[in-house]
Amino acid sequence: MEQGTIYMIPVTLGGEVVDDVIPANVQSIATGLRCFIVENVKSARRFLRKIDREFPIDDCQFFEINRKADSSQFHRFLKPALEGQDIGVMSDAGCPGVADPGAIVMNLAHEKQLRVKPLVGPSSILLTLMGSGFNGQDFSFSGYLPKDRKARVRALKDFEADAYRTGRTHLFMDTPFRNMNVLEDLLNDLADTTMICIASNLTLPSENIRTMSAKDWREHAYDLAKKPTMFAIGKKQ
Predict the structure, then answer these.
(1) Same domain for 113 and 131?
(2) Domain check: are 151 and 198 in the same one?
(3) In the beta sheet, which residues pair with residue 187?
(4) pTM of the predicted model, to two decimals?
(5) Count of structural domains within the chain
(6) What is the pLDDT of residue 71?
(7) Which of 86, 119, 183, 197 could tie 132 with a disulfide, CB 3.0–4.6 Å?
(8) Using CA of residue 206, residue 210, residue 214, residue 219, what is the dihedral sign?
(9) Last residue of some domain: 84, 118, 152?
(10) What is the mean pLDDT of the chain?
(11) What average pLDDT does this structure show over 12-21?
């Protein structure tokens, strides 16, 4: 029996128009599937209905992978593919498998020698790097910063030191309600000449990407509260 393909389906980063950021062929593949492994069922259904208002949600099978899910059961989610059915994997936002639990599913898919097909779509990490003006050949993404302020500042200063030493770009993020805490730490604890990029509301009409020194950032009032935001520390090219 021919096995199914695991499609990595990018979704929108926010409330933008789907056609503006998701290629037509990706939309076509997504709406042709009836089995999905998703980070959040509700947001996955919403995305599919954005593509096609008549999409038959009730005819679909959804498996949820998130922090609360039992990862030991993830292998069961791939059974339809072993039986010949294609499966779509979707994150809450952006590209699945990148800073996302979908990576665990991909590991299992490779173990089972299933075909994996990543599709083109928006990535806040890549968009920030593209717009930052920083080194795009040597970079790292560290995900969410520590909640504890001392640990967070220590991480930021480590990024700063490494950027000066190697020229490497460091990208990171935090939950929107802690954005202003991160900004405060960046401006209070980094050197005046350290370059900082802040990219908020990516792909939305209100998108804003700015790169300035810590000294220049201190002279600008900037409200990041409740805005999905990516931060980067780098070296001026």
Answers:
(1) no
(2) yes
(3) none
(4) 0.91
(5) 2
(6) 67
(7) 197
(8) negative
(9) 118
(10) 93
(11) 88
Contacts of 91 (CB under 8 A, 6+ apart): 10, 11, 38, 39, 97, 98, 100, 102
The reply to whether 164 and 221 lie within a common domain is yes
Backbone angles phi, psi at 175, to 5 degrees: -65, 145
Instruction: Provide, rounded to the nearest whole percent, the portion of the chain with pLDDT above 90.
Output: 85
The separation between CA 70 and the C-alpha centre of its own chain, rounded to angstroms, equals 22
Q: Looking at the structure, tell me whether residues 95 and 152 fall in a common domain.
A: no
State the residue range of the domain holding 189. 124-234
pLDDT score of 95: 94
| One domain for residues 144 and 77 | no
- Are 114 and 135 members of one domain? no
35 and 107 belong to one structural domain: yes
- 148, 152, 155, 160 alpha-carbon torsion, rounded to 10°: -170
| Single-letter amino acid code for the residue at 121 | G
CATH of the domain at 64: 3.40.1010.10
pLDDT in tens, 21-73: 999 999 999 999 999 999 999 999 999 999 999 999 999 999 998 766 666 77
CB 224 within 8 A of CB 183: yes
Residue 111 sits in the same domain as residue 156: no
